[in-house]
Amino acid sequence: MYKVVEFLKTKEVELVPSVGIQNGVSCWPHLKVISLHSAIKQQVTPSQDWVSWEIRELFTTGVMDISYSCSLRNVYTLIREMLTKQEMILDQQQSILRILNAKHPQDTDYVIERGLLPVKDLQALNTLEQKLQSVDFKEKLINHLGLIGGCDTKDTVWRTMHRTISNDLAKSINWRGVNGKISLAALQIKDVVIDAVRKNVFSSTATNSEIENVMKRWLHLASDRDGGRKRRQKD
């Protein structure tokens, strides 16, 4: 009889005679390939100069087929690679969960009242600015918007701004407040958006300047969204 085993130290899979296995240990000879195959096929009794290896028995077979053995090695090599990659994915998922749990340990840390966002008019914006004078509420809003995420800095800012300010109100806002518009740079919500964007691992290292430039661009294009550009072209 033969056994297909895995050598624990080298992670190799081999077909070995059952006679050379005892108590989780297999004896392996120092022989050339042809002599080695012959020794395995003839189930030669191990001698004292054979090396002992700790093994894990996979299954037993009565067939001595070298090509079959090679195929098994390839299969188990692929399985090991798949398991290794699976472990890496699981580790990454655990890391993501640890990050999320660290940032959002309780629902009360990021749940805000329904209907508060996006702000739709000047009155709602003023109400939000008053609420942001509370440090606790400001942190909660940062955590709330930080859940939005995105694939990069631009995408994260775009999605966060869309969730925070309605497009109709955005048409009345620009960065510095010129031409009679509201200045976003002077509002507390600006700092909230910046901090929320950095909650995302894909934009955590973005500078204020990078985030602000995307915010400016988002405001600048407010008139083009929701069909605004097409309406102007018709006119």
UniProtKB/TrEMBL annotation:
- Name the domain of life: Eukaryota
> Taking every annotated instance into account, which residue ranges of this chain make up the domain DUF4806?
117-189
Cross-referenced Pfam families: DUF4806
Query: By what name is this protein known?
Result: DUF4806 domain-containing protein
What lineage does UniProt assign to this protein's organism? Eukaryota, Metazoa, Chordata, Craniata, Vertebrata
